[in-house]
Design brief:
- Two copies of one chain form a homodimer.
- Chain A has two domains: about 80 residues, Winged helix-like DNA-binding domain superfamily/Winged helix DNA-binding domain (Arc Repressor Mutant, subunit A, Orthogonal Bundle), CATH 1.10.10; about 55 residues, 2-Layer Sandwich (Dna Ligase, domain 1).
- Chain A contains four helices and five strands.
- A three-stranded mixed beta sheet of chain A has the order 4-3-5. In chain A, strands 1-2 form a two-stranded antiparallel ribbon.
- In chain A, helix 1 packs across helix 3.
- The mean pLDDT of chain A is about 95.
- Chains A and B meet through helix 4 and strand 5 of A and helix 4 and strand 5 of B.
- Strand 5 of chain A pairs antiparallel with strand 5 of chain B, so a sheet runs across the interface.
- Chain B binds a DNA duplex (30 and 30 nucleotides) through helix 1 and helix 3.
Chain lengths: ~130, ~130
Amino acid sequence: MQSKRNFSAKREAIYETLVSTDIHPSAEWVYEQLKPKMPGLSLGTVYRNLAVFKEMGLARSVGVINGQERFDAKMTQHPHFICQKCFRIIDIPKGYNVLDKNAYTMIERECDVEIELHSITFYGLCKKCC
Amino acid sequence: MQSKRNFSAKREAIYETLVSTDIHPSAEWVYEQLKPKMPGLSLGTVYRNLAVFKEMGLARSVGVINGQERFDAKMTQHPHFICQKCFRIIDIPKGYNVLDKNAYTMIERECDVEIELHSITFYGLCKKCC
DNA sequence: CAACAAATCAGTAACTATTACTATTTACTA
DNA sequence: TAGTAAATAGTAATAGTTACTGATTTGTTG
C-alpha cells in the first residue's frame, strides 16, 4: 500500500508524527518519538525532511526556543502562546487573532513592502505555571 | 565622567551601539562595530552583556535569523517586518499594530493563561527585493 | 589617596543544534 | 531484471553560544 502523498516510509512517519501532535516539536523530539518504532532512523533524516516540509509548504517554524527550532504542521494562520517558564507552546484558535483586516494593506503602503505572511506570539505564564 | 546608568565602559559602549541602530543586530555585528574602537573587547563580553540587558528589560530578542539571534533595544511594543530575501528587519511604527484592544483579556480568559507581552512579525519582500 | 571587595572582562575551551558529505540502500522505470 | 534517481545512515564538520579561569577594572570605605 502506498501513501497518498508518495512519501517514503520514513518521510511519511516524520510527517505523521509532526502533524498529529500539538506540542510544536523540535527535530530531536520527532526523532525520539520515532526511533523506538524505526530503529534505522537517523537524526539527519529528520532534519532534512523537516526542511523539505517547509519547502513544500507543509510545515513552518514557530521559532527557536532554548536553541532548538520548533515546528508546526498546522498551516492555518493562528497565533501561539509560549509559556516563559515551561516553554510550552499553545495554539490560539484562529478566531482570537484580531489583527485588523486592513493591517496588510496599510503596512504595505506605508512601509513599502510586500507582506506574505505574519506570525503573532504571546508570551507569559500558562495555567500550570501561574 | 560617569555614565548615567553606572555601566562599565564596555557595557555602556555595547548598549549605545545597540540602542542607536535600527538594524536589530546580532551579537557579532555589535562586536564588529566596536572592536576597531575598542581593541580589547571580547565577543563573549558582548554576548554576556546582551543577556544582561535582556535580564534588565533594556533589550529583547527579535528572533533568530539564519542561526543568529537578533536584538532590539527599542522597548516600546512594535511589530517587525522581516524580508525573506535580504533578511533585513524593519520596524513598523506602533500605530500600525492593530491588535484588538480586547485580545489580551479574551485570550487570557479562553486559553487560561497570563499574557505578559506579545510579538508580531510580518514576512515578505522589502522594496529593494521586490 | 590607599586598600580591599565585588564586578567585569579576555581568552580559550567546551557545548550543542544544525548542516554537509559519502557510501549505501531503497524506490521507481522501462 | 537492469539501470537510474531519490532517500538515507552514519559520521564529520560547522557555527552560534555558553562556560570557565585567571587577570583586570570598578566601586567603596576609611
